[in-house]
Amino acid sequence: MSKMTIGIDQLGFYTPNYYVDLVDLAQARGVDPDKFTIGIGQDKQAVPPSSQDVVTMGASAANEFLTPDMKQDIGLIVLGTETGIDASKAGSLYIQQLLNLNPWSRAIEIKEACYGATAGLMLAKDYIATHPGKTALVIASDIARYGLETGGEVTQGAGAIAMLVTENPRIMALGDVSSYYSEQVMDFWRPVYTDEAIALGKYSTEQYIRFFELTWADYQKQTGKQLADFAAMTFHLPYTKMGLKALRTALPEADAVKQADLLAKYEESIQYSRQVGNIYTGSLYLGLLSLLEKNTNLQAGDEIGLFSYGSGAVGEFFTATLVDGFRSQLHAEQHQATLDARTQLSVPDYELVFKDKVPYAADNYQADPARFAGDFVLSGVTDQQRQYQVNE
């Protein structure tokens, strides 16, 4: 009996319809723009209105590719997020309702900082291995908030990536071996009483690199593979220079030609993130999507390394192999057109949108209909119940 091949069959992407230019933000904050655009490696930052949350963004990302037949085959719905909307109820249940997904499924939410979606992907792989014929929908959706005029302001962002995980996938097959490592580390956290995270930036960067070095070395020990065996390496990208710091620790293992090739592909993998910012659980997969849609040389059989990191902390290095016809499943022109069609906000308008948010209180709330965008919106909160609707 042949071994089952399981992996990513579809990739969807959504980001809010507004952004702030980081040169404008730097000038408003009295900072040299090069610090943001070169030092941090960001150009634009998605700005979510209060009518967008992890549910609406996640549903919109999945709605990009789901067909009626696909919806009926889904047996597992996972939302990976660290900006959940309820301390108890899974946001995937709202997504299930908005998308009219198969009710005979498991719908859950996974939290472990930026690692949650990877945990969901691995759970989906195991689920499909024991449920032939079934598929899984894994959604990474987040809003990164650190506050106005804070050190972390430049690494905010919002967006979602949706992945359909199946047998015989049409984009990439997940590898059988991965290395994962967990340790209680206080590099980043968000108390339950606030929607703004607390980050120890320098310390978190050190932990990110340490966890990469640990899992990469362990993966090599398990498999005997070297850097030269990979066509590309992709990373969790809270900001685009972060992954480069980790990649540089491994580059000396390869010759100069291979190093140049990996650096060029890394540059392709960060193009979407430069325009969107930090989307927490989805950042690794936004980088993967950018690589696949910006690169023209990758081909079936190429193996890609992926490093996932969630502060607190969990790290995992795993791999995926591109399959025949993968390019036909991508939507590069559509995604770039979506990014190009967004509305730029002035810094004062960005600050107004940032401050207009669903309250951390029992108050009723009405979102501004003038800023409704996307396939689905949060219209408001009534009696502590979120009100979602299709955006006509």
TrEMBL record:
The keyword Nucleus does not apply. Keywords: Transferase. It holds the Pfam family HMG_CoA_synt_C. Residues 264-365 form the Hydroxymethylglutaryl-coenzyme A synthase C-terminal domain. One of its GO terms (molecular function) is hydroxymethylglutaryl-CoA synthase activity. SUPFAM superfamilies: Thiolase-like (SSF53901). (3S)-3-hydroxy-3-methylglutaryl-CoA binds at D32, Y146, K245, N278. Substrate binds at G151. The active site is at E82 (proton donor/acceptor), C114 (acyl-thioester intermediate), H236 (proton donor/acceptor). Residues 5-167 form the Hydroxymethylglutaryl-coenzyme A synthase N-terminal domain. One of its GO terms (biological process) is acetyl-CoA metabolic process. Belongs to the thiolase-like superfamily. HMG-CoA synthase family. This is Hydroxymethylglutaryl-CoA synthase. It comes from Lacticaseibacillus saniviri JCM 17471 = DSM 24301.
